[in-house]
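Go through this fold for my students:
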Amino acid sequence: MSDSGAWMGLAGARGTGAGVGDPEPAVPTIFDSHTHLDAMAQKAGVAASSEFVAGVMDEARAVGVVRAITVGDTMGSSRWCVGAARQHPDVYAAVAVHPTEIAGITEDDYAELEALARDPRVVAVGETGLDYYWDRTAPADQQREFRRHIALAKAVGKPLMIHDRDAHADVLRILREEGAPEQVVFHAFSGDAEMARACVAAGYVLSFAGVVTFKNAPALRAAAAVTPAEHLLVETDAPFLTPHPFRGRPNAPRLLPLTVAGLAAAAGLEIEALCAAVSATGSRIFGLPTP
């Protein structure tokens, strides 16, 4: 059993984050494996400035979230993420073009993505993958560009960070066909227990977001329950996928402790054990320093 109940209390509301009360401070420390700091600023209607990033991370540290990976989903977003990571020692970057944004991507874009991906502040190629929920880009086009991103991750020797929405079978098939990079992370994992077992058998890491705290997500909690601790990561996907009890409001790294509590309960782990496992995986997968 997890001691998650102790983490569900709320203190006073504060500034640049989600506009809701803070979870009580999380001890030991942890990191946010997937967030969108530029989208957070856009959602808040403010400039995605260095000051904004510093404020978000100050609030995150107050609850034990000491690092974050900010993730690109367009060329412009990827450039911004690298710039933010260069300016802030507690921020790292991932770069890619999201499957719903690949229309018009060029060879020059891929050349620039490779240059960005080789930056020492970039720890992953992502988010990339397949999204069959939205119909903005054809599945065949998404699959072609997913293969290109897989090749890019292997070329630069960095983890592949996957977006998979309503496309589980094709994502797993393409990874088999192309030969997966050494490290693969399923961002905001959305599969069931059967898929979790298949991913673990392949050596992949599963990152759980706030959905694991939703009452209508028993299949996701069942997936967490069969995933070994060393295959778990936790994320906000801020400003999206805000955990209960603030579902529907903008998310922020400072709300990560609520998702940690939900994931620990689902996985049958003590919070301290989950945090230690996530920190070790962050070091192993992304090369992050141990908090």
The longest strand covers residues 122-131. Confidence is low (pLDDT under 50) at residues 1-15. The first helix runs from residue 37 to 44. Residues 31 and 69 are 8 Å apart (CA to CA).
